[in-house]
Write a structure and sequence with these properties.
The chain is α/β, with parallel strands linked by helices. The chain has three domains: 182 residues, N6 adenine-specific DNA methyltransferase, N-terminal domain (Ferritin); 274 residues, Rossmann fold, CATH 3.40.50; 230 residues, Adenine-n6-DNA-methyltransferase TaqI, Chain A, domain 2. It has a nine-stranded mixed beta sheet. Helix 2 packs across helix 7, helix 2 runs parallel beside helix 11 and helix 16 runs antiparallel to helix 23.
Length: 739
């Protein structure tokens, strides 16, 4: 499988998750979608393993049933081998594909939302998830599978108010996942593992502050992993005391040929389950990882063990007990002071150094304040620098790179046997980032610059410098990067002439639009919306649209006469369904739809995706031609609808509903109506479904549309577009993106 196909797999999985999660928070639905993907993985792995054993008997695992004379013998033999090699066992009838088929039969896409056409599988599915765990009882893998699916509560009302509604959404998830080939027999790339990581990252981006509990951004993760593996091809062990989803441990494994053993500890039970799933799904044998669930500082689970690589992104400035009894704990006793109870940052540092092997490297992410705060933290820093000389480097990172917090952070690198023992390397990468939407990210260029500077201990102007131990100690072990690096940038000359030209162009466009808008306002006898208050302008637009659709405001024709009376027609009478399938899998650009821009390239909708990505499963995508409407049936209530206009020959997911209009409807007028409060109210009366309210074309067709005379439709659309232009022009003037 190619990198290109891998990215498409990632997007397919995210599309399923994003479309089906309904009104649940991202972090709530995460446990379900990741759990079902994991169940599918276990099933496919089981089937491949069993088929290999049965090869000489010329029978497939799925073909074994209770009516066969040898069934019991086959099952027992396979179970024994599976528990030894895989660590778990599934019966043929418990395989993911079999359950998905039982749930959906031969249903069409829209049938999947019909409770009367979906077979009830909730009880069977719940038993299967329990049976996976029970199959490991008394074996070496028991701890690794213990209560692994406990967060997948199939009876939760968050999935649907009734068992039938919950069954509908679960059956649909299984049906969509069943269509995707994980290609587990391919050994070229850890494709599914990477896709799983992609999903975890996407859920993290939508989880806000909660994201920090389970995910380290990919750029930071890469830096930590590459630092602790510098100069090494193999690792005996890697340890993360706050391992979250296990992503950081697995990232370390990507940087070397082999890691013998993975160790981690995680306090949050749900995240602990996710970490174990992540390990297994990445092909880490159950005997090679040891993830524990406990509070790392209060109840460490890997006492007296040392590790060759130690990495962590602990919760920033978390509270801990700082119990005086810890002064006799081997992790803290030599320092003479404990980290303050209100800020556990250096308690994690002390814990990790205790577990660091003599030939090992440790890298930890801490909030910037940990570099210079006084009191006990200053005392601990001084001990590590003056007495032990363990601190190898301090790397300042950009602010706003972690989900849920914008605070600046730094990486501290420690070694017990340092090659450069006379100085400490300071790197200021705080300005090295790329802004993507509301988040700052580290690109490959930024990452490589940090790593090259660290590994070669380079000194670059305003970026990095080696500071002698003597100077650091003279500064009372204050590690504030700006104390040692002059990073002040002299501002470049501003091109006043160019700037004024841009401002004049914007002003001209704004004035031209205002002239046209005033003319329409005068014709209708309504006030012109002067001023620059965006909130009030949007309310003005809403009020005007209400009066237009209620016919309180009416346009007149060029002779000053009233246009004919309006008709009221069903949307199905003036639209028709379209969207041919891309059966030949042609390489059209892939688009998505959101509630702001409408149609937009997938690369803009989903970070990391390229609009030219092609895969092995785009035959079901719909081809969009000029003047086509498309909407997300699960999100049309929030305006997730687009109009292609001149956009031609692109493809979108089969989940979208596509249609065109008859000649009596002006497309721009219809778009205005579809974004109106009147339409939203009609949607609420017409939707159906369980977790999320869905509006398929049949229901859409039954909604009433006020139909003015065609020329009046054009007048209404033009008026609303002029107001929209005014709002957009003000947003441009207020932005800082003048270039």
């Amino acid at each position: 499988m190619s990198e290109e196909q891998k990215r498409v797999l990632e997007q397919q999985l995210w599309n399923i998750a994003n479309t089906l999660r309904g009104k649940m928070n991202a972090d709530e639905f995460r446990d379900y979608i990741l759990g079902f993907i994991f169940y599918k993985y276990l099933s496919e792995k089981m089937e491949i393993f069993a088929n290999d054993i049965l090869k000489q008997d010329k029978i497939k695992f799925r073909e074994i049933n209770s009516k066969m004379a040898e069934a019991k013998e086959f099952i027992e033999a396979i179970k024994e081998e599976a528990l030894e090699k895989l660590g778990y066992f599934l019966k043929p009838e418990e395989l993911f594909t079999e359950v998905a088929k039982r749930g959906n039969g031969d249903n069409t896409e829209e049938d999947l939302f019909d409770e009367s056409k979906t077979n009830f599988i909730l009880e069977d599915l719940q038993k299967i998830l329990i049976n996976i765990q029970l199959s490991t009882m008394g074996t070496d893998s028991e701890e690794d599978f213990d209560n692994l699916f406990e967060d997948m509560d199939l009876n939760s009302t968050k999935l649907g108010k009734t068992p039938e509604a919950r069954n509908v959404i679960i059956a649909k998830v299984l049906a969509h996942l069943d269509k995707i080939d994980f290609k587990l027999e391919s050994t070229e790339l850890d494709v599914l593992g990477d896709a799983y990581e992609y999903l975890i990252a996407q859920f993290a981006s939508g989880a806000g502050k909660k994201a920090g509990e389970f995910y380290t951004p990919q750029g930071v993760s890469k830096i930590l992993a590459k630092i602790v593996t510098t100069g090494k091809q193999k690792l005996k062990s890697v340890y993360d005391p706050t391992c979250g989803s296990g992503s950081l441990l697995l990232r370390v494994a990507k940087e070397v040929k082999e890691v013998n053993n993975f160790y981690g500890q995680e306090m949050n039970r749900t995240t602990y389950n996710l970490a174990r799933m992540n390990m297994i799904l990445h092909g880490v044998h159950y005997r090679k990882f040891d993830i524990k669930q406990e509070d790392t500082l209060e109840r460490p689970q890997h006492i007296e063990m040392q590790f060759e690589a130690v990495v962590a992104n602990p919760p920033f400035s978390a509270k801990w007990s700082a119990n005086p009894l810890f002064t006799s704990d081997d992790r803290f006793s030599q320092y003479g002071k404990l980290a303050p109870s209100s800020k556990a940052d250096f308690a994690f540092v002390q814990h990790m150094i205790y577990h660091l092997a003599e030939n090992g490297t440790m890298a930890i992410v801490l909030p910037h304040g940990a570099l210079f705060r006084g009191g006990a933290e200053q005392h601990i820093r001084a001990y590590l620098i003056e007495n032990k000389n363990f601190l190898d480097a301090v790397i300042g990172l950009p602010s706003n790179i972690f989900y849920g917090t914008s605070i600046p952070t730094a990486i501290m690198v420690y070694k017990k046997c340092r090659e450069s023992s006379e100085d400490i390397l300071f790197i200021d990468a705080s300005n090295e980032f790329e802004k993507v939407k509301t988040q700052n990210i580290l690109t490959e260029e930024h990452i490589n610059k940090i790593l090259e500077t660290y590994r070669q201990r380079k000194e670059l102007e305003k970026y990095s410098k080696r500071i002698s131990l003597k100077e650091v100690i003279e500064n009372n072990c204050n590690l504030n990067i700006t104390k040692y690096l002059d990073t002040y940038e002299v501002k470049k000359d501003i091109d006043i002439k160019k700037l004024c030209s841009i401002l004049n162009d914007i002003q001209k466009v704004t004035l031209d639009n205002d002239v046209k808008l005033k003319s329409v306002c005068n014709r209708l006898g309504v006030p012109f919306p002067d001023g620059y208050n965006l909130s009030l302008l949007k309310l003005y637009k809403q009020g005007i649209l209400q009066k237009l659709l209620s016919q309180e405001l009416r346009f007149k024709d060029e002779n000053g006469k009233d246009f004919p009376k309006w008709d009221m027609k069903k949307l199905g009478a003036v639209t028709f369904k379209t969207g041919n399938k891309n059966k030949k899998s042609k390489k059209y650009p892939i688009y998505s739809i959101n509630n702001k821009e409408g149609f937009l390239p997938q690369s803009e909708q989903f970070e990391g995706m390229d609009s030219n990505d092609r895969g092995y499963d785009i035959s079901m995508y719909k081809i969009i031609t000029k003047n086509t409407f498309a909407y997300n049936p699960a999100r049309i209530n929030v305006g997730s609808i687009g109009y292609s206009g001149e956009l031609n020959n692109v493809i979108i997911s089969s989940l979208y509903v596509c249609f065109k209009t008859t000649d009596e409807i002006n497309d721009e007028y219809l778009m205005v109506y579809l974004k109106s409060n009147d339409f939203n109210k009609a949607v609420l009366r017409s939707v159906e479904g369980g977790v999320r309210s869905y509006l398929f074309y049949d229901n859409f067709s039954s909604i009433d549309l006020p139909v003015p005379f065609y020329k009046e439709q054009v007048e209404i659309a033009n008026f609303i577009n002029l107001i929209d232009n005014k709002i957009a022009n003000i947003e441009i003037e207020m932005s800082n993106n003048l270039k």
